[in-house]
Amino acid sequence: MYRFDYGDEAVMHQLAQRLNKAGETLTAEGIHLLYHNHNCELRHVNAEKRAYDILLEETDLPLSTLSLTATGSPRAVKCAGMDAAAWSPA
Q: What are phi and psi for residue 5, nearest 5 degrees?
């Protein structure tokens, strides 16, 4: 597994670009890319955004799908130190 620093904003912008490129390549072959998250994408990369926010904003949805996992969410939410009711991706 490739390891990312999900708390590094620049790394998350790069990941979004890589997902777009992979989605473009796979779409050309008739395959749809699905990105499945874990609790690490809920880390803050700055005062306003979490890593997952960057992925939501910068991935090209016709080329890929982001999956926000609800199973195990109490543990993920606890690890991320967030209030699930107060945060919802738009």
A: -95, 90
What distance in Å separates the CA atoms of residue 85 and residue 54, rounded to the nearest whole number? 20
Is pLDDT of 81 > 90? no
Q: Which residues contact 39 (CB under 8 A, 6 or more apart)?
A: 75, 76, 77, 79, 80
- Output the pLDDT for position 68: 67
CA distance 42 to 48: 12
Q: What is the mean pLDDT of the chain?
A: 79
Q: Measured between alpha carbons, how far is 7 from 40 in angstroms, rounded to an integer?
A: 8
Nearest to 60 by CA among 36, 87, 90, 27: 27
